[in-house]
Design brief:
With 212 residues, the protein is an alpha+beta fold. It has three helices and eight strands. It has helices at residues 18-66, 122-131, 194-205, and strands at residues 70-75, 80-85, 91-98, 108-111, 115-117, 138-151, 154-171, 174-188.
Length: 212
């Protein structure tokens, strides 16, 4: 008589005790709490990073707004540079323009009409270049500009050193005609001695005077 195959033994069914059930629930609650806390912390970090980025952008915008910068647009065939601020909310009131001393001895004062005219220094530039023996037909003339302007209802002053690009064109029985080409910022934050800063720059770029 053949033996019947042994039946598989079933594992005894064991109910969780109350203490074990409570422990499992506690672990689940702790895991959910950790996940929720992590999600909240991540969201807070993102919001803080976005706020800091916005503050940095506002700070950069503020710095740019406070920076005074001018551009020069040629007019009248290069006989004049029309000056204008990069930021339209900055309104120019007056300007004092200082040229190298051996080009022009006194500063030019303007009121409400910001500009640089070639006629202000044309003859002096021709003499200065002749004295230095320069035959260059193009160059950059340093100009110190003290500008009083209005921004946000406040009167402010900017002292800066600019370079005026020019070219020379010969004329019969007269000094060369100066054609103004543009304006570029060389240095801002110039001290009270604007004329000294202009002369120092001119001396550093001009050739030595020609020997007699």
């Amino acid at each position: 008589m053949s033996e019947q195959p042994a039946r598989k033994r079933r594992l005894p069914l064991r109910w969780l005790s109350l203490a074990e059930f409570v422990g499992i629930v506690a672990v689940a609650i702790a895991a959910l709490g950790y996940w929720d806390s992590h999600r909240e912390r991540t969201q807070t970090d993102r919001e803080r990073a976005a706020a800091e980025q916005e503050k940095r952008a506002e700070a950069r915008a503020g710095v740019l707004k406070l920076s005074f910068l001018m551009t020069g647009t040629p007019e009248s065939g290069g006989g004049r540079l029309r000056l204008a601020t990069v930021h339209p909310e900055q309104v120019i009131q007056t300007q004092a323009l200082s040229f190298p001393s051996d080009v022009r001895g006194d500063a030019v004062q303007t009121t409400g009409n910001p500009r640089i005219e070639a006629g202000w220094f044309e003859g002096g530039l021709d003499k200065a270049l002749h004295t230095h023996g320069s035959k260059a037909r193009q160059g950059r003339l340093p100009v110190g500009i003290v500008t009083v302007f209005i921004e946000d209802g406040q009167t402010k002053t900017d002292r800066a050193l600019y370079l005026v690009g020019y070219s020379l064109h010969p004329r019969v029985l007269r000094s060369d005609r100066v054609e103004l080409e543009g304006l570029s910022l060389l240095r801002r934050g110039v001290g009270e001695d604007v004329q000294g800063a202009v002369d120092a720059r001119w001396a550093s770029q001009a050739p030595a005077p020609a020997r007699p």
